[in-house]
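Async update (no meeting this week)

Hi team, since we skipped the sync, here's where things stand on the single-chain job. The sequence we agreed to prioritize is pasted below, unchanged from the tracker. I ran it this morning and attached the output directly underneath so nobody has to dig for it. Comments welcome in thread, and please keep replies under the output.
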Amino acid sequence: MPWSSQGGGPRKPNDNGPWGQSPWGGGPSGGGGVPPDLEELLRRGQEGLRQILPSGLGGRGIAILALLTLLAWLASGFYTVGPNEVGLNLIFGKYRGKTQAGLNYNLPSPIGTVVKLAVTDRNAVDIGFREQPAASRRGPLTPEAPEESLMLTGDENIADVKFRVFWQIDPAHPEDYAFNVANPPATVKAVAESAMREIVGQSQIQKILTADRKLIEPASQQLMQKVLDDYHSGVLVLQVLLLSVDPPASVIGAFRDVTAAQQDLQRLVNEAEAKANSVVPEARGASARIIQEAEAYREQVVAEAQGQAARFDQIYEQYKRAPSVTRQRLYLETMERVLGGAEKVIVDEAPNVSGGGSVVPYLPLPGFSSTQGGRK
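Output:
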């Protein structure tokens, strides 16, 4: 029977090596390049099996050989899953369950197959730029993808947004990642760009450049996760990191001037508020002090008036009981208050020899004492 060479052409009679030999180790039977007969090969194989199985290749031997082959095939179904992996068991291409780290078993090929996914590895996708190799890197970002980074804002301006998305396979649903999406990394990138464009399209350029930068990251992450969950992609978004948000290069200088002016305005407003916060409490404290002093003076005057009225009532009661004594006492007390600190001259009202009053000499002892003390 004819025999075709696997080398693409007929073998030559004098070829050496594997092309000039039989696949079973012997040379071709007969001269020329005619291959051996298939029946001869089967006969030699049977003789080799008889040597392995001395009892002959009967029904029992075939059964033992088939059993050993079956056991070897079944044993090939054991496999190991790494600590950062999850194994997905497939039977005839249909998903049958997942396995955790360690030694596991599934029916071997071609009936069963195993897909291993690294579910704890963090993946990153960059939108709006491409990182350069370390040898040629001049800066942290290389704007090589303006078709990704240029986005239209809500007030019809253009913002150059570069960001990075960190994601991983959802450990709870790795089968969705393996079977529901054809290219998960490309899908994550497309969803990230779409979500960021939607968030930026709802904001104004000035807020994006200043106050709303920290609000864009969680909003875009939530929107990305919602879209990917709707796709049943089995992807878990870990973080959205804004690397830069700038106006286009042609107008970035003007925008920076506007931003600096706004920052100066905000600084002046803050300083004015700080000054007001320090002056207003001082003024309020001074007014409260004046009011309290006025109230205290009012209470003092009222209390003194009430005391004087009560004293007058008491004196009046005593006057009604002894009018002359009370008048004399009031006179003496009044004269004591009036003349207590004045120079005094005592005049005796008794008549002298000539029948008139006379001035009694008075020695100013307090003045004399002070004079003598000063001389000392």
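Quick observations from my side:
The first strand starts at residue 78 and ends at 81.
Residues 252-321 form the longest helix (70 residues).
Reply here if anything looks off.
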